[in-house]
């Protein structure tokens, strides 16, 4: 029988807590749930009011993986959902993780957590600009850091405050809080920024999605600003060989990075980092830090 847990007054049935999800480290589902609960104070604000997309991997990263935006069957009635416009097939409903019980319920499904750059209060109006730096082997996150430093300066010249996090996979995400802006305009700005970076750093950066162009270079993916796209949220676990986390990092850490291992963080390292650095992405949640995109964008 699955154990019943009471979380802030909600009854949850938690399953297979001894199941090993990450064989390389022996990490169990119970440990994953513990991570989510102990990181909730940092994680939940980045999920608040943002329609959730799930990458589920119930048998670990080597098992079946499937991505869904729809409300999963069996979702408790107390888990909040919202209607999300859809350009071709009409509106759909997606989950909102607004509190700890909902987060624990989602973690029990074994998921990566992905959100759009807009909230359910204003669909399609981005309040964040995101730039995804994806290295093509043999390039690594070290090369991403070089590109990130150039982008940091360039975005600052446009008056934007930029915050960085590891993707939890191979690359980096740069995020800037912006005044609500139609996603089409945000995407157009990011596309021009990527093209400018490719011109400035031709031996390092590519802005085209053509895979044959990407080995040894950093692909700047601007497309995650599109209204229909999503990005792995800060502090989410990833479906990788080991339990890595999409982790906020400092610009000093980016400047000092000479090896991929320096910017790869396991879930066990997140609590000590938060104690040492605080919540590095807290400014993204402050509406007073939002800045307008340049008029030309």
From TrEMBL:
Coiled coil: none annotated. Keywords: Ligase. Residues 28-280 form the DNA ligase D polymerase domain. Its EC number is 6.5.1.1. The keyword Ligase applies. One of its GO terms (molecular function) is DNA ligase (ATP) activity. It is an enzyme of class 6 (ligase). InterPro entries: LigD_pol_dom, MtLigD_Pol-like, NHEJ_LigD. CDD domains: MtLigD_Pol_like. NCBIfam families: ligD_pol. This is Non-homologous end-joining DNA ligase.
């Amino acid at each position: 029988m699955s154990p019943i847990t009471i979380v802030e007054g909600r009854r949850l049935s938690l399953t297979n807590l001894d199941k090993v999800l990450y064989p390389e480290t022996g990490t169990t589902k119970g440990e994953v749930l513990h991570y989510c609960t102990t990181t909730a104070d940092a994680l939940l604000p980045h999920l608040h009011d943002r329609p959730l997309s799930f990458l589920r991997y119930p048998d670990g990263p080597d098992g079946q993986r499937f991505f869904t935006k729809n409300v999963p069957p069996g979702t408790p009635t107390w888990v909040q959902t919202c209607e999300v416009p859809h350009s071709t097939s009409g509106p759909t409903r997606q989950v909102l993780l607004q509190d700890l019980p909902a987060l624990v319920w989602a973690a029990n499904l074994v998921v990566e957590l992905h959100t759009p750059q807009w909230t359910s209060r204003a669909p399609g109006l981005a309040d964040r600009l995101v730039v995804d730096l994806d290295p093509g082997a043999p390039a690594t996150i070290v090369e991403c850091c070089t590109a990130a430093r150039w982008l940091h300066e360039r975005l600052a010249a446009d008056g934007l405050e930029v915050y960085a996090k590891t993707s939890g996979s191979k690359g980096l995400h740069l995020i800037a809080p912006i005044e609500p802006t139609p996603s089409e305009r945000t995407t157009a700005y990011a596309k021009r920024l990527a093209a400018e970076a490719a011109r400035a750093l031709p031996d390092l950066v590519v802005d085209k999605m053509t895979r044959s162009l990407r080995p040894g270079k950093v692909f700047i993916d601007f497309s995650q600003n599109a209204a229909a796209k999503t990005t792995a949220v800060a502090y989410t676990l990833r479906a990788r060989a080991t339990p890595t986390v999409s982790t906020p990092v400092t610009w000093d850490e980016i400047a000092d990075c000479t090896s991929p291992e320096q910017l790869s963080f396991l879930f066990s390292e997140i609590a000590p980092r938060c104690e040492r650095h605080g919540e590095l992405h807290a400014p993204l949640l402050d509406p007073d830090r939002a800045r307008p995109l340049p008029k030309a964008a």
